[in-house]
User: Fold this.
Amino acid sequence: MAILNSLIKKEAYHILRDKRTMIITLMMPLVLLLLFGFAISTEVNDVRVVAIVDRHTDETRDIVERLSVNPYISFKGLASSSEVDKILGTGYADAAVFIKNNDGNPVSQIIVDASNTVVAQASTGYIRSIISGSSSVAPTLTQTLYNPQLKSAYNFVPGIMGMIFILICAIMTSVSLVREKENGTMDLLLVSPVKPATIITGKLIPYFILSCVILFVMLTIAYTVLGLPVSSRIIDVVVISLIYILLSLSIGLLVSAIVNTQLTALIVSAVAFMLPVIMLSGMIFPIDNMPTVLQWLSGIIPARWYTQAMRKLMVQQLDLGYVLQEVVILLSMTVLILAIALKKFNTK
Assistant:
């Protein structure tokens, strides 16, 4: 126990002494969460729309009035049908609505600039909602669950948390252990009477504690600044996050057992993990929309299961029983990767 405490203190002193790394490590979660929570958003709040009306009636005026007062639409006024191509082509408007009279009932046609598919889909949805809510059309009732305000932060926060832990934990752990190998310190430790498991534990505990601090910072920002709903599920969020942190540290340990230089460890940890996490974890792109092969491949990405579990717990406010599959997969990955990494160190 005395040897383990000494190793923990040594690694903790080394972490605290490197102030630049500490600042980057603690600032990265803050910057990414605020960036994706506010600056980078999938919400479309200023759709530019023009209307073309063949004959004004009370019904068409009602629709035009709804377009002009909707907070998500910037109504650019009325136009003629001959001007539509020019209006959409020059970027003056994102969509045009044709409102025609059919025996006293308004019939609408929507023409959208689809060069930006996100804006096009949002424009179509907003306009259809306005038209269906007109007094001359039977109302369509829509109920939005879990995220009624359609905030992008609700979608991004779980994915950002999954990406940050993989990157920070894997990079810090792998680079730290490989540095010991380059300096020759690891060889001295491995030929000493100290067991490899004790050495690894002493190296990982300080990074585990630092990761817990990062978790606290991210949850604080998510529940206060970004406005995610707080409930009793926060205990489940913390427990599963701790499992994921252990998994991320195990990945860094495995990388350090395979590579021999800090540069290689940095490249493997940053490049080999960052792109799969962003592309295949469901953080940005829905997994169900991917080709079957990529859906299978995403199954080996730990961030996919963590992000999936966090969305159910943090956004949908579901019980732990609904994420048992994700928990079992994360635990299995942790045990498997940690066993392989320790075996490689024992072999050396």
Summary: The chain is about 65% helix and 10% strand.
